[in-house]
Amino acid sequence: MTRRDDLDRFYSLLDDLEQRVGGTRKLKTCTGYMDWPDRGVYFFLEPGETRASTDRARVTSVGTHAVSEGSSTSLWDRLKQHYGTGSGSSNHPHGGAHRGSVYRKRVGEAIIEKHELQDDYPDWDKRWSSINRERSVVRDEEYILERRVSTYIREQPFLWVNLDDKPSADSNRATLEQNAIAHLSNFGKRPIDQRGDEWLGRYSQSREIRESGLWNVNHVEENYEEEFLELLEQALNNTTPL
Fold first, then answer.
1. 91 DSSP assignment
2. Which range marks the domain in which residue 207 is found?
3. Among the four 51, 85, 114, 219, which has the fewest Cβ within 10 Å?
4. Is 90 exceeded by the pLDDT of residue 1?
5. Of 153, 173, 196, at which residue does a domain stop?
6. Any domain includes 227
7. What tens digit of pLDDT does each residue of 89-99 get?
8. Chain Cα centroid distance, residue 82
9. First vs last Cα of the chain: how many Å apart?
10. Is residue 26 within a helix (H) or strand (E), and if so which, with residue range?
11. C-beta separation of 228 from 175 below 8 A
C-alpha cells in the first residue's frame, strides 16, 4: 500500500466517524456538559482546505492529552485550553491563554507574521519566566490577539475518537497521534493534498508547519506505521455521539 492509499483509507475512516457521531463539531458550540469521553484523540479540519482530489476537508491539526504518567487531564480539559475564555470571563472574555495551548500559540504567531504585528506583540513567543514585566500588563496587551486566535480556532470543525487507556508516552493515544501526524505530514516528502496558498499556516515562522501542512511540529518528519489505521478504526468503533 502506498501513502496515498493509506491517506484514502484514513479519510474514509474519518467519514465513517463523522457519520457515527452525527457530524463534526466546532468549539464555539461546545461545552464541558457534553458527554465527552474521558480520553481520546482529536482531529481539526480547516474550512476551505480540502484534499486535492475531492472536496473533503483535510486535517490540519492532530492532538491528544494525558500522555505523561500520572496525568489526569481529560479530553475536554485539552479542548477547553484551545477554546480559551468564555463570555463570563471578567477581564478577557473570549480571549485565552496561548502559553497553555501550543495550538493557540502557533496560530497567533502566524497571524503576527501575516499582518506584521511583531512590534505589537513582542512577548507572544516567550515563556512567563523570561518576561520581566507584570503578567497582567502583558495579558492586557495580548488580549486582542488572543481574541483573534479564539475566533479562528473556534471555527475549525473537528472530530474525536474515544481511546481510554492509561496515561503514558507509550499509550495507544500517543501512538495514534504520532502516526497520524507523520502520515498526514508533507514535510520532507512528495506532497499529497497540497496546501492552499491562503492557509494561515503558510505564514508560520516554523518550517515544519509551513511544509507539513499541519499546525503540529513534533513527528512531522517521522515515518508512520500503517497499523495505526487499525487502531483508529477500533477507536472510532468505541466512539458514541455526544
1. S
2. 3-81+154-237
3. 114
4. no
5. 153
6. yes
7. 778 999 999 99
8. 8
9. 34
10. strand 25-26
11. yes
Q: Quick check: is 242 in a domain?
A: no
User: Grid coordinates standing for 86?
Assistant: 468564555
* pLDDT at residue number 88: 80
Phi then psi dihedrals of residue 57, to 5 deg? -60, 135
Q: Dig out the grid coordinates for 191 from the structure.
A: 506532497
Both 172 and 127 in one domain: the answer is no
Per-residue cell: 163: 481511546
The residue out of 99, 132, 153 marking a domain boundary is: 153
Return the percentage of the chain with pLDDT > 70, whole number: 100
Query: Distance from CA of residue 209 to its chain's centroid?
Result: 12
CB 104 within 8 A of CB 82: yes
Q: 70 pLDDT exceeds 80? A: no
| Mean pLDDT score, 228-234 | 98
Q: What is the pLDDT of residues 42-63, one digit of tens each?
A: 999 999 899 998 899 999 999 9
146 and 158 fall within a common domain:
no
Residue in the structure block whose three cell numbers are 491563554: 97
Total residue length of the chain: 242
pLDDT at residue 69, as a whole number: 78
**pLDDT, tens digit, 9 for 90 and up, residues 154-189:** 999 999 999 999 999 899 999 999 999 999 999 999
pLDDT for position 175: 97
